[in-house]
UniProtKB/TrEMBL annotation:
Coiled coil: none annotated. This is Olfactory receptor. It comes from Alligator sinensis. Gene3D superfamilies: Rhodopsin 7-helix transmembrane proteins (1.20.1070.10). The gene is LOC102376312. Keywords: Cell membrane, G-protein coupled receptor, Membrane, Olfaction, Receptor, Sensory transduction, Transducer, Transmembrane, Transmembrane helix. Its main location: membrane.
Length: 309
């Protein structure tokens, strides 16, 4: 299909159209973004600088934090800046770039969370073989596979959208460029593209979620054979991961595993996986993880000692 683009830019309607609400949102989302960047950077620095956090679990967690920083940066700064202007515009190439990186990083996060569940399964259900199975080489390939999966998912979404003709109107009822709002603006029948988009994003989200649920059911059943102390430690680690999975995958499945229609709730639901999940990940993983908290304390004590010398 030959694409016709009479539209050079898109206009976001934003999260809200009320000026007072926009001022409040500017302050709140600026704070959320700052917490996201600082929290995830702190996790990365702690893991890279600690001798005790060398297991594959923390290797994956450091990459998850890196993806969260990138993912949040693709969306949050533009959204925050738009709270200060009346006319919220984005160029056509800029829109497609945001679409590509949002799905690339979001898809990578889905696969990373699935890989982390597999890591927990091996650690809890096959502890004697854990270091044999989860070697540095294997972990590296798993991370590379997550990035590759995210890229392939995103390139399909982006190429499908690029081929659509946009003749006007150019108002997107959202605060970011995403597939469903763009399909609504295309001046052609988008049924086939919509089905492919649902099959791509929706089925990836659902498949990863089902795999995660099954893996945690197996883990919880196997915990009956552990001591009470080991059971509590494993449950604490798994609870952190399950919390992140529910917050991230729940909204994603709602958004993408359905026909290409838009609802008034979409913008609010999108906030969960574009803003809250990247911000909550470091809080959830540090507040419920004694090893990470202890490593942070040691690094802080060492820093203070160096300054006092």
């Amino acid at each position: 299909m030959a694409s016709v683009h009479n539209v050079s830019e898109f206009i976001f309607l934003g999260l809200t159209q009320h000026q007072e609400s926009e001022q409040i949102c500017f302050v709140l989302f600026s704070l959320f973004y700052a917490v996201t960047i600082v929290g995830n950077l702190l996790i990365i620095i702690t893991i890279k600088g600690s001798q005790s956090l060398i297991s594959p679990t923390y290797f994956f967690l450091s990459y998850l934090s890196f993806v969260d920083i990138c993912y949040s940066t693709v969306i949050a700064p533009k959204m925050i800046a738009d709270f200060l202007v009346e006319r919220k515009t984005i160029s056509f190439p800029g829109c497609l770039t945001q679409l590509f990186f949002a799905h690339f990083l979001g898809g990578t996060e889905m696969f990373l969370l699935t890989v982390m569940a597999y890591d927990r399964y091996i650690a809890i259900c096959k502890p004697l073989y854990y270091m044999t199975i989860m070697t540095g080489h294997v972990c590296g390939w798993m991370v590379l596979g997550s990035w590759t999966g995210g890229f392939l998912h995103s390139i399909i979404q982006t190429l499908l959208t690029t081929q659509l003709p946009f003749c006007g109107p150019n108002e997107i009822d959202h605060y970011l460029c995403d597939v469903h709002p763009l399909l609504k603006l295309a001046c052609t029948d988008t049924y086939t593209v919509g089905v492919i988009a649902v099959a791509n994003t929706g089925m990836i989200s659902l498949t990863c979620f089902v795999v995660l649920v099954i893996s945690y059911i197996v883990i919880l059943v196997s915990l009956r054979r552990h001591t009470s102390e080991g059971r509590l430690k494993a449950l604490s680690t798994c609870a952190s991961h399950i919390t992140v999975v529910v917050i991230f995958f729940g909204p994603c499945i709602f958004m993408y595993l359905r026909p290409s229609t838009t609802f008034s709730e979409d913008k609010i639901i999108s906030v969960f996986y574009t803003v809250f999940t990247p911000m909550l990940n470091p809080l959830i993983y540090t507040l419920r993880n004694e090893e990470v908290k202890n490593a942070m304390r040691k690094m802080w004590i060492q820093k203070v000692d160096l300054e006092d010398q």
